[in-house]
Amino acid sequence: MMQEKKFKLVSSKKTRYILPNILTIAGVCLGISSIKFSLDLNYNLAVIFLILAAILDALDGRIARLIKGTSEFGKELDSLTDFVSFGIAPAFIMYFWNLNNYGKIGWAVTLIYSVCCVLRLARFNLTSYNKEETWKQNYFEGVPSPIGAILILLPLIVDLSEIDFSLNYNFFVPIYISLIALLLISKIPTYSFKKIKVRPKVTIFLLLGIGISLVSLIFFTFETLLVFGIVYIISIPVSCFTYLRKNKDTKDYQTEEDHEDIL
């Protein structure tokens, strides 16, 4: 008897490619939904949905590498969804919340941020490293788009939190968003956190820190996001210092090797 063929939607060898792409698609759905909530003036959910999209964006690539499910399709899909979730959604949220008060200038700032985001993503897709420069994978050129989306939302997060800074948003928000847009396309090195080596003795403290962060996000969502944003901004000068020092050490090492070869 002829054996009946089983219906398969996807080849069993390619099932590992599905999960990362599902997370990517879920992330873009959250990003688009955040625009809908901002239209409804529900900025709490708009920010929360965008943060969830950023979390999924951080997970999909790592899970793909972990289960060996990386693909060119997934790379292109990730870039396209990043532009929607982190180039369009946060800009529209800020426009509906504050930038629309500035008329044409507010809309121009919205467009500038979106354009800078798409340029940053295009440059990221073309980035490649030599074998001698693998250490540069620990750094991004400029602020990554998910972090940039969170950073431009900080004025709104301050407004939603219970912390009173008595900020005057007149002329502050457009200038602030323009600066973040410039950071996206800048060549300032920022930490990528792609290759983090954790010592076994420190693991328990790392897990404790993650647990405390999750509890803080649940009960003090916007205050915790504000702290995370400020900490990241402070980390930018630190990342510049460590990058320049590492780059100098690498060049000195290569110079010594070239000198030895000559001798």
Description:
This protein has 263 residues and is mainly alpha-helical. The chain has one domain: CDP-alcohol phosphotransferase transmembrane (TM) domain (Four Helix Bundle (Hemerythrin (Met), subunit A)), CATH 1.20.120.1760. Helix content is 70%, strand content 2%. Helix 1 packs antiparallel against helix 2 and helix 3 (72-97) packs parallel to helix 5 (145-152).
| Radius of gyration over C-alpha positions, nearest whole angstrom | 21 Å
**How many distinct beta strands?**
2
Secondary-structure arrangement, i.e. CATH architecture? Up-down Bundle
Major sheet details:
2 strands, antiparallel
Strand content: under 5%
Q: What is the global morphology? A: globular
Give me the number of helical elements: 9
Average pLDDT reading: 83
- Would you state the CATH class? Mainly Alpha
**Topology pattern, helix = H, strand = E:** HHHHEHHHEHH
Adjacency order of strands in the biggest sheet:
1-2
Count of domain modules: 1
Low-confidence runs: none
Query: Could you name the CATH homologous superfamily?
Result: CDP-alcohol phosphotransferase transmembrane (TM) domain
CATH topology (fold) name: Four Helix Bundle (Hemerythrin (Met), subunit A)
Structural class: mainly alpha
Helix content: over 70%
Which characteristics define this entry?
single chain, mainly alpha, Four Helix Bundle (Hemerythrin (Met), subunit A), 9 helices, 2 strands, globular
